[in-house]
Amino acid sequence: MNALDQLPTLVGLGIALGGLVLPVGRLLRHPDSFAARVTEQVFVWALFAVVLAIIILWEKQSLSSIGFRWHWASLAWGLLLTAMLIFITGPFGDWALKQTGLAGFEHGLAKLAQLPVWFVTVAALTAGVVEETLYRGYAIERLALFTGDVWSAGAVAWIAFCLVHAPFWGWGPVLRMAIAGLPILLFYLWKRDLLACMIAHALTNLIGLVILPPRRARAATAGRS
Asked: Does any domain span residue 224?
């Protein structure tokens, strides 16, 4: 493969691995405003659209080249992964986070609590679709073309995925994500089923960011009464 043939994939990898690092919302006059958060979500979907365009129009590949195939087994695998994340690796990640003494998710959840529930729901589902496409499907498959080793490609994509969350969540949650999210990475390397990973990621986000926080708040209020 010559340099010209590699160019579409190099551009795609640059966008997939580095695009979400760009502080788009910070460029606005009020970076913590609702408008800034909306702008960030629009930018995320723009990255998603650009990567899909690169795959289909520039690389001349199908979406199956990044592990996306529609079949009902993906739903079952996605639900199984969700259960594993919530009941096994998630609690273990929480335990590991406590041992470090690092701050948890409180600061990030406080920011999300200021946003409408519908918006947090959309953002949670967006992350499940877009982040899995960029960091799991595209990054792993295309890095593997260059390295010849899917495991090293998976490791690079996994590290990039974890680090991109540090500015918003902090290093404690990044550690927790790194541990709790390992089953999705290992599952993808095994099955190459991007849809199942999307389902698990989106459902876990929905539970962790939308469903559980209000319950925890009510429990804390009841405990103080």
From this structure: no
- Structural domain that includes position 194: 3-217
Q: What is the mean pLDDT of each run of 10 residues along the chain (225 residues)?
A: 79 95 74 86 96 97 96 96 96 94 92 94 96 97 95 96 93 94 95 98 96 59 44
Q: Alpha-carbon distance 24 to 31, whole Å?
A: 9
CA dist., res. 123 & res. 218, Å (int): 23
For residue 223, is it within any domain? no
Name the DSSP class of 181. Answer: T
Number of structural domains the chain divides into: 1
Residues 94 and 85: beta-carbon distance below 8 Å: no
Instruction: Choose among 97, 220, 81: nearest CA to 169.
Output: 97
Nearest-angstrom CA–CA distance, 94 and 91: 5
Q: Give me the helix-helix angle, 194-206 and 182-191, nearest 10°.
A: 160
